[in-house]
Amino acid sequence: MGSAAERAQGESITITFEDLQGRAIYIESYGCTYNHADTRRLEAILEGLGCRLTGPEEADAVIVNTCTVIGATERKMLRRLAAFAGRDLYVTGCMPLVQMDKIRSVCTPHVIHPDEIHERSGGVGTPGAGAIGVVQVASGCVGRCSYCITRLARGRLRSAPARDILDAVRDLAASGACEIQLTGQDVAAWGLDRGESLPDLLREIVEIPGRFAVRLGMMHPASVLGILDPLVDALRNDKVFRFLHLPVQSGSDTVLERMQRGYRAADVVRIVDTFRERFPDMMISSDFITGFPGETDEEFRRTLELLQRAAFVKVNITRYSRRPGTPAAALKDLPERIRKDRSRVLLAEANRIYDAYNERWIGRETPVVATEKNVPGSTVCRNPCYLNVVITEDLPFGFSGRAVITENRRHYVVGDLIPSDAG
After folding, report:
1. Which of 173, 172, 229 is nearest to 198 (CA)?
2. Which residue from 53, 75, 248, 338 has the highest number of Cβ atoms inside 10 Å of its Cβ?
3. Secondary structure of residue 71 in the 3-state scheme
4. Are 69 and 31 contacting, i.e. CB atoms less than 8 angstroms apart?
5. What SS3 class is residue 409?
6. Phi-psi label, residue 415: left if phi above 0, alpha if psi -120 to 50, beta otherwise
7. pLDDT number for residue 7
8. pLDDT under 50 in the chain at which residues?
9. Burial of residue 105 (number of CB atoms within 10 Å: 0-12, 13-18, 19+)
10. What span, in angstroms and rounded, lies between the C-alpha atoms of 160 and 404?
């Protein structure tokens, strides 16, 4: 096949999957849910070619599925690639699409373009961990964020056809998945390039037979604004978790303008209030960037105020890092000390909010479904608001019942099962 990597980088480094046929392969995977789903696709392709997936010492070829969303991640990727520089090395993910020069500074790998993985594997669904299935509903985005390297790597929005998504959900539900994650760089934008919308898609998904619930992936606030009311209506169905990942990045309108995010802080408040008026216990998570170029004390204070006002639960906080090729890369960085101090302040408040949210559940009964196992003798469950409930029993995947919440451990709560004959 023609190499998409060659088109992206102007290089003649090409591979075919048959080059890996019958070999022992070690894969390392980094980044978002979408990227890890690509890894699962890749594993299935290789297994179909008679490959054996193994550890690094036994492998005669190594594949690294890369992420480069922030500077710290980029540095980690380069360290890992350098560690495998003497091996038969293959690289995929976002990094080779935008930073092949950095990769070549530490190694000379073959390139597997993500599009080649999709073209070879077909479909848009893949099994995840435990009783989780993942459906890649779209790649790329419609945004123009001034700091984002991912949009340079993934390009403009490309939505998967609704029929492919529905087929994937049917297959995953039939195979026993009880949590189905819809993933993409901006799930709320699904269908904009096809004259369709996410709420319409959800209305079709919930008609599919099976005991499952959909977890919506990351959604850009500007995209949510265009579908707000029908999206809220879609979450009324029990087959959709009352959960929203809404990365807002800043609470300052002037910083949001410099970021080219396409919305204002008041828009974020309107989204949050609209959902919480309908679903008071709804879990809404977010992402924030501290120390964006030029951020003043007052602008940071407004970010802190938005976090408090919206009461976001489970917040990812990153210190701004310059990404090559982005418009913001030309701006003067704030001192690292300021970025770090602001990150600490925001994290402390985020943790306080997280604890307060979990404490609300103590003593309450809630439905739970078993989805994952992380530690022997316990099971990770989810409730309708996607609360992470750990039951200290070995439960089969897909088990559903009721539990009373007994402890707050910040990143999860502990629950005790209520016997099914207890009323």
Report:
1. 229
2. 248
3. helix
4. yes
5. coil
6. beta
7. 40
8. 1-12, 422-423
9. exposed
10. 40
In the block, which residue shows the tokens 């700091």? 147
CA 382 to chain centre: 17
Q: Alpha-carbon distance 89 to 72, whole Å?
A: 22
Residues 181, 206: contact at Cβ < 8 Å? no
Interatomic CA distance for residues 287 and 148, integer angstroms: 13
Amino acid at the residue 49 = L
C-alpha span between 148 and 327 (Å, rounded): 9
Answer yes or no: are the C-beta atoms of 117 and 142 closer than 8 Å: no
Distance between CA 359 and CA 371 in Å, rounded? 23
CA 200/CA 376 separation, integer angstroms: 40
What is the rounded distance in angstroms from the CA atom of residue 265 to the CA atom of residue 246?
Answer: 12
The alpha-helical segments, DSSP class H, found in 84-155 are 95-98, 100-104, 114-121, 150-154
pLDDT digits (tens, 9 = 90+) for 165-214: 999 999 999 999 999 999 999 999 999 999 999 999 999 999 999 999 99
Tell me which H or E stretch contains 180: strand 179-183
The pTM of the whole model exceeds 0.85: yes
